[in-house]
């Protein structure tokens, strides 16, 4: 019963958001039913709709989990955007610098680089918070700008092909052979390369399964290990945790490091599985959308997965709404996301309203 109640409020928030979105579509003179038919239908079509929905959901799973781990420690990680940028560039650097390595060495090395560079960038505001009491929100926001600027600088002046008008690095894993240039030894396979019935042109790759594995591992880490318990205890009541012998400083650094590592895994999807290079400006706000995903998912790995799939579907469907409707643009997706966040934030209002009808116990506050 408790789990059903936890699902109730996100469902109310999503339903309310779609209702508000429908009213907005109606006010601007378009058909809400046709708009939502395009939005949902295009996201669930086979194979392109589902394939791209899962592809768009993959980075949101990683960033949603990143925010969840930090939040469970009482921290708000606004820096997942910077952490994934650092990880993406570092991953591309490894793929370029060690291109001569065989695939069975280079791919794991690049994946490890994505995780470790994200963890290091996440640990920095964790150390500042634990050691000096600096607020993690301010630190992570500022570090976002630093991360993007550093990646842009090194791309522009050191790792971009000469004459390339696009701000992007050279291709990863590119080596000269007797047959010419080859660069596949740094690529993780797409689903279409593994199963013949799925189109190879769809960029969905095995990092999606890594995201599913990450959901399971985060659950085990937070609810089945000593470290996870100490992180949650620190987030629930740091004073009581200290009294119980838990070093809250260590937990802050650990939580931010794990959070950064999860955000850094976006690079596996982006660099190793999609573009095969670092592309400046590749993120469409994955780190910030991850906050909404975590909020809607109730800061639980299962909820994060479901919320990321919803947001991935909205991103996919928004493209078709933009093309095939008269007045509605893909910005409707941003409106729906914003309204969902507003309704999730207004959970107390829903609890009191349901309490009036006897569906839940009213809050005593």
List keywords for this structure.
365 residues; mainly alpha; ABC transporter involved in vitamin B12 uptake, BtuC; two-stranded antiparallel sheet; 16 helices; 2 strands; globular
Can you walk through the features of this model?
The chain has 365 residues and is mainly alpha-helical. It has a domain at 65-308: ABC transporter involved in vitamin B12 uptake, BtuC (Orthogonal Bundle). Helix content is 72%, strand content 2%. It contains 16 helices and 2 strands. It has helices at 2-27, 32-44, 48-72, 80-97, 103-132, 136-159, 191-194, 207-224, 226-236, 238-243, 248-264, 266-275, 286-296, 301-324, 331-345, 347-356; strands at residues 175-177, 180-182. A two-stranded antiparallel ribbon has the order 1-2. Helix 4 packs parallel to helix 6 (136-159) and helix 5 packs antiparallel against helix 6 (136-159). The two termini are 23 Å apart. The mean pLDDT is 89.
Quick take:
With 365 residues, the chain is an all-alpha fold. 72% of the residues lie in helices and 2% in strands. A two-stranded antiparallel ribbon has the order 1-2.
């Amino acid at each position: 019963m408790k789990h059903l109640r936890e699902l109730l409020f996100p469902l109310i928030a999503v339903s309310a958001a779609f209702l508000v979105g429908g009213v907005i579509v109606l006010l601007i003179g378009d058909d809400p039913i046709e708009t939502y038919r395009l939005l949902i239908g295009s996201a669930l079509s086979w194979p392109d709709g589902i394939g791209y929905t899962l592809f768009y959901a993959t980075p949101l799973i990683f960033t949603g989990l990143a925010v969840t781990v930090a939040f469970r420690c009482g921290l708000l990680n606004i820096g997942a955007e910077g952490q994934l940028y650092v990880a993406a560039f570092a991953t591309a650097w490894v793929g370029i610098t060690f291109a001569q390595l065989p695939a069975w060495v280079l791919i794991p090395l690049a994946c490890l680089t994505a995780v470790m560079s994200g963890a290091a960038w996440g640990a920095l505001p964790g150390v500042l918070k634990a050691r000096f009491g600096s607020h993690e929100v301010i630190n992570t926001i500022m570090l976002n700008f630093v991360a993007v600027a550093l990646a842009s600088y090194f791309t522009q002046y050191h790792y971009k092909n000469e004459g390339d008008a696009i701000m992007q690095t050279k291709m990863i894993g590119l080596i000269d052979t007797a047959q010419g240039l080859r660069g596949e030894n740094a690529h993780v396979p797409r689903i279409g390369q593994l199963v013949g019935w799925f189109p190879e042109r769809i960029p969905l790759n095995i990092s999606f399964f890594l995201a599913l594995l990450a959901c399971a591992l985060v659950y085990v880490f937070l609810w089945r290990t000593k470290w996870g318990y100490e992180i949650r205890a620190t987030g629930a009541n740091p004073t009581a945790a200290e009294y119980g012998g838990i070093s809250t400083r260590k937990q802050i650094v650990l939580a931010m490091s794990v959070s950064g590592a999860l955000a850094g895994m976006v690079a596996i999807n982006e660099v190793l599985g999609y573009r095969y290079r670092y592309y400046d400006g590749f993120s469409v706000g994955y780190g910030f959308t991850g906050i909404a995903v975590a909020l809607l998912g109730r800061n639980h790995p299962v909820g994060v997965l479901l919320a990321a799939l919803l947001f991935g579907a909205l991103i996919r469907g928004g493209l078709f709404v933009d093309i095939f409707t008269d007045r509605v643009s893909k910005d409707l997706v941003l409106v729906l996301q914003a309204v969902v966040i507003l309704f999730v934030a207004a959970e107390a209002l829903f609890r009191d309203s349901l309490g009036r009808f006897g569906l839940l116990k009213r809050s005593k506050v």
